[in-house]
Records
---
Amino acid sequence: MLSVSVSAVLPTARADLERHTSIFNARYDAYLWPIVIVWALDRGLRLLRLICCNLQVRFSKKVISRTYTIASYSKGSDVIRLDVRTDSFLATPAAGQFYYLYQPTTWQGYENHPFTLGAWSSSSIGPDEAGSSLLRSTGTHDDFDEEDGAFSASKRQSHGQTLTFWIRPYDGWTKRLRDSCLASPTHTTSPTILLEGPYGHHCPIATFGSVLLITGGTGIASAVPYILEHIALSRSGKTATTQMHLLWTARQASFIHQVFARELRDVPHRDDFSTDLFFTRQDASHKDDEEGHDVALRTEIQKGRPDIAAAISKAAMKAEMMGQRVAVLVCGPPAMADEARIAVHGVMKRGCFGIEYFEESFGW
């Protein structure tokens, strides 16, 4: 579908270009055509990247593997969890990455949607050694191994990766994906999803003695990879970070429970990690969604919103007293990012120059 779309656009673009530039008698063609060539090359390379990310040909085994997806929707947290299994050599997951997602089987399959990579797992190692766990139970036992949360042997044909995304459904494509999940008795479906990526950048927060992570809702996807990276680097002594603090505000407490029961299940017991957790809405009708997520959190999940300015000021003062630099990583709604940015600026105006601000995009 994408190749047809690109080939259809090129003649139209050429006709439009010639119509708008004909009055100049080709005086500016030497400047315009390089732009068209660069645009076409960009589209062609993206199409090639899309193919490489989603189709893997194994000549030795005479098989062609493709990406495989499980989407599950939780009413309690109002979040779609998307697990995409890929064998692509381009899938080298790391903190700070995002991918474009396509659903080619829909009538708007040409659209792409950027989402931050929240977690990942490799089928070549155990779940405790991986960047995260996979879905524990999805109702599709033929595809997943319920015991270790990884794909079953029928799907393990290589050292592939399963990439996890958290999606808050609104309108458009995310709403249709949620409705597709709700149509299943288990609220789980297997849509055809294509990946394009990875893109993004890595923030060097491991070089800071203290790290403050401020996230809102599904913005936790930007923080989880850095938390897991910190744990991995701590084991090998390759990080300067001695204290990491997570300030997370979610709409529903059940989403917090779900993430701490899976991706962050080993984190609450660490001495170098602390949390302040908040939720803004309470839905008693879906409290059963939290069953099975009995992770002992050191901090009670509070109802309300945090004082971001006070948290940043406290982190800066503590780091300054210990002679450390502090990194503030923010991923949340614009108002949250604005408040954090102003607070960091205020701290710097008071003479604390050992603080650095990093911001991950929450929307597009």
---
Amino acid sequence: MLGVIGFVALPWAALGEGLVALTGVGAFALVGGLQQDILVTALAGVVAMVVAGVLDAAELYDAVDWDVIFLLAGVIPLGIALEGTGMAALLGEAVAAAATHLPVVVVLWLFYILTGLLTEVISNNASVVLMVPVAAAAATAIGANAFSFVLAVTFAASTAFLGPIGYQTNLFVYGPGGYKFVDYLRIGAPLQLLLSTVTVAGITLFRGI
């Protein structure tokens, strides 16, 4: 059967798909205004598409990138373990213990690198919460500028370049782009080193250590 919009004849199935698509767009538009959970809204949109026949269960299953799902299933517990066992804080304290034997700028750089590594497996907020007290205490112990150390940790917590699971956008393109873990390392490692050097140099120059 055909439906008519203006002068264009369309199958009723296409009209139904278009209606569902418009409903989905409208639902997402309301998320911001009504402050609803976007995950719930997205799930409701998927259910509506299945009910309307726009998407069948087999297509839905095939559309899931299971490699990403299992990657998250393995890495998220690792991040939880790092936080829960105190390993992350222990690593920070190890750097702090070595602070008295190293130049201040090297200690600052080490805290940047360590925070950047942690933020690959735990959230940037958790990295900051874990590392700021340790970095500030280490700076105070060696007579350095604690605020500069806090700045380094804060900047480093947003530099998840070494893998697909450190930040959402990295993960979004991991499956569709056909990337491998080593691809992120190949591009991300030089970028991480460059930013760490520039950031530490900038903090040293403009804030002092």
